[in-house]
Description:
It contains twelve helices and eight strands. Strand 7, helix 9 (227-232) and strand 8 (237-240) form a beta-alpha-beta unit. A five-stranded parallel β-sheet has the order 2-3-4-5-6. It has two domains: 6-241, Phosphoenolpyruvate-binding domains (TIM Barrel); 250-295, no CATH class. The relative contact order is 0.12. The chain has helices at 14-22, 36-44, 54-60, 71-85, 100-113, 140-153, 166-184, 197-206, 227-232, 243-262, 275-282, 284-295, and strands spanning 28-31, 50-52, 89-92, 117-121, 158-163, 188-191, 213-215, 237-240. The mean pLDDT is 92. The protein is an alpha/beta fold.
Amino acid sequence: MTYLVADDLPSAPAGERFRALLNRPGILQIPGAHNGQAGLQAKAVGFDALYLSGAAMTASMGIPDLGMITVDEVCFFIRQIARATGLPLLADGDTGYGEALNVMHMVRSFEDAGAAAVHIEDQLLPKKCGHLNDKKLADPHDMAAKIAAARKARRHLFIVARTDAAASEGIDGSVGRAKLFLEAGADAIFPEALTTAEMFKEVAARLPGVPLLANMTEFGRTPFFTASEFEAMGYKMVIWPVSSLRVANKASAELYKALKRDGGTHNMVDRMQTRAELYATIGYHDYEALDASIVTTIIPQAMAQRG
Length: 307
């Protein structure tokens, strides 16, 4: 009951808990969670951290991932997932929502909402998914200034600098930018949209000792690799950013087709989460028990009489 009960709430700041996970042996596996329910399901099977994707957020809102949403809209998603799960959450910060002062505002807002980490990318608006074509890159020194601003503003937030330079500037450009961002204060590097194992290995070899994040998105430029394969290539974190949303969207599309075709949901019931499964996931009966314990009437002692 992380959302309400003080005894269940983590005591350490979220960024510190994220760093502690990275200090453990092995690669940190961070599945995407597009809402609090998905986060609870990921937690239930044993994941220790979660990722909030800008693409998943915007798609769930019915709009494209082109840098259209605001800091406050992202914080709504951060709060629901952080409150529901209590797990350290890495949030997609897009391009920082503006220049240096905007980045500082984003960092403080994300921290206040419960985020543990953020990644900021070196694209210009309108930004695109990292696996699409014709991305426009920011000047690396302008991006470094954003990273420095994020570092100055943060209290505990773990800062990941993402570079989308591989497609247009190659590995040399990606690594050069990464080194500049590290000097500016980044805690880790996210080299986006690498297309071969050799590219992943080369980046890792040229950034020794740097925590690196790999993106295993489906239907993109990166071939399928497992977490253990990324670890062997020198990576400390891996995200599956939109997987939960893709599966959920596919299932709901099938539901609506069946409902329109059959005039009812009777042919889809066996594919549904049952009421009991839903209540177990969200802790429904725990909340009921908590509510009952809080509203129990306590009769006051009789008022002392005057002598």
